[in-house]
Structure of Fibronectin type-III domain-containing protein:
Amino acid sequence: MKPNKISRRVRTGTVLGSTAGLMLAMASIVAAPAASADAGLTLKYKCTYPLIGQQDLNVAISTDIPDKVALNTPSPTINIKAVSTVSGDTTFGLWTTLTKKLTGTAKAQASLVAPQYPTGLPLKPNMTLADANVPDSGPFDITATGTQVPLTFNKAGWAQITVGNLDLAITPLGADGKPTGLGQINASCKQLPGQNNVLKQFLIDDGTNPPKPDPVPGKYPAPNPVQTLDPGLPSSPEKTLDYTCPYPLVGDGDLQVKVKSNFPTEVPVNTATQDFISQAIQVTSVSTVPADVNENGLQQLGAVQMDGTALAHPTITVPEMANPVPLQMALKLDKTNVPATGPVSINGPGKAPALSFTKTGAGKVALDDIDIQNFTTYDADGNPANLGDFTCHLKSGQDNTLFSFTIKDGGTPPPVDTTAPSVPANVSGTATGGSVAVKWDASTDNDGGSGVKGYYVTVDGKKGDLVTGTSTTVSGLADGDHTFAVSAVDNAGNESAASAPVTVKVSTGPGPDTIAPSVPANVKGAATGGSVAVSWDASTDNDGGSGVKGYYVTVDGKKGDLVTGTSTTVSGLADGDHTFAVSAVDNAGNESEASTPITVKVSTGPGPDQTAPSVPANVKGTGSDDGSVALSWGASTDNDGGSGVKGYYVTVDGKKGADVVTGTSTKVSGLAQGDHTFAVSAVDNAGNESAASAPVTVNVPGKPSGGGASYTLSGSSTIKGLNGKVALNGAVNAAVDGSGKVSADLTLNPTTGTFSLFGFIPATADIAFAPQGKTTGTLSGSTLSTDTKTVVKIPSIKVFGMDLGVGSTCQTSAPADIPLKSTNFSVAGGGTLTGSYTLPSLTGCGFLTPLVSALAAGPGNTIDLKATPKK
């Protein structure tokens, strides 16, 4: 027979369990990626499965647990790998139960012992195994990998992870992908005693580097002892069954099979303290080929010998299985001589795994069809003839039970354990507040004993609950000395003597702190803009007090948040005075009186501006006969960071004006005819006034009372349509009456202008002016407004130097109306005049009249003249 399917599952489950256990252990111990050292561990187990009983299992575990983890820091993810090697015997069991693939889950027992968990934190992670294909024979490996989420440790010191027993839930699948007759297998794998099951020791690091303790293996329930049944027990009788086989060449024929096994008629059931298992099942079979098949078939092939293999298909029915479980058994058909006549009998020995049962009742094994494989005959020269494979079917109407057996209570019970474990040694205790952490060395039980179950810790003469590890923490102790002793108990209830007692002093510390810290002294404040930096001397707490926690700063009567240092900055303060006081608070919540308040003035602006602006320069004035002077000056500047120039005061004839002038010019009115002195000073927004400028004298002329004046004219006019400018020169004789009315004779000299026709054709034109009547207007103060009407003549136009022959009659069809205005005119000094005008259409220009008129006529023409009094 081939490897038992259950064993294979056991291997698989074990791998899963180990992997899962490691994963959780890893996650528990990892904090920060300190120097990582891969941890490795190989453990041996005994796994108990349905039908095939206890089987050995070795599991190799590896993981990248670091040597150190950081305190109060989440661990990174840990990687775990577990490799289980399935033995050839287990594969044989799997093969026997028709298993081709395994799937399932497992749970592993593991324990984390750390300062945070002194009595151990049980770990039972789950993990799913990847489907594993089962070979027909031989060992194979199953690998499981996984990761675990981080944990965080809040106590420093050494920690360790131990790996314990396994619980498996496995489903074997057949060639069709469906579960075999075994259904789901729930198996328990227990660790063999005496192994070091500490996967890893690691330091939860706070920088103190305590010495590394010796590893302490975890204690887990051991497997039951196993008793193998006596091979001399009564075995089942021989069974004869008849089959029909489709023989090659001959067709259907009979086959008689006689089967004998060594399986006993009575088998004890496994108990809580003892596992029973049969010897490996040996089967002998004799198959008889009838005479007609021999004579009509084998002899026709010249067969003198024959051999082959067979695959028998039994089923087993036992109380622990809900339905009969299909099996298979390999038989070797021995090479047998073939007589010339008569029937032929061939021996076919086989083997099945040893069996074990968990429920009492009746059991049986029945045989169904048999597959004949590699049926081969040999002639006299030894030449083989392979007749192939065929299946022999059990004839109906037969009781195909090969053997029956009874599963009963009994078996040889193990000896009663009456010996207590050894007394725990090296008991010690460490007090922290009202708790004491007690630890001791592991006890051992006698050879063949029931195993150490745990320990009782007796405190001040009172025995506590059972502790399964080798340490525990006793809490809620009052101040003073306390005695501790430890005894060990085994699974049979035998308790050792108590250890020598140890005394540990407990001190929970002084009573509650009810005294406030000292009042903060030397409180100071310095303002910068809208903020005040406040500082003070550190307060002290009373001896044995809880210690100063921090300070409260009260601003303008409102207490702020806790400050842990001896300074802070208070921001967002408005301009003005603010009061500050500081109180201290300790860790028990006691707050001191507030310090003597201090007052700090806050000013969000710069310091006061005390620097005057610069003295105004370049003061100038123009008098007008209307009794006013137009005064202007250069702008003053204020100092860097100053408040800025606000404006100017104008002093006239020694009298400063009351109003501030915000610009750099003003008009002073109401002045009498004659000379007047003017000076200007600048003032800033802080009220600082500069010195007055150097005085200037300006003459205010009297209003004209009649008479005339002559002026020469010079300037230019731009003719928009011709895209050019002409120079203007001439003269004007003007008369002004007492009301300011102007009447003048204007003369403009003929001139020549240069133009660009259409923007790119160079041209010149002779231009003459024929004023129509007098120039009229008004003079009020320094403002002169005039109007002149003149015919504009263009007697010659040349393009590229060639005269176009427009003729002397080429002129505007109507006088051009030219208004001029001056704002700085005086009879005595003249002034500048400007204006714009429209040039009427032209006429008398010959055949070019339309073109010349289209080019020259139109609005947008400008004129600029300067009138200078004639000497």
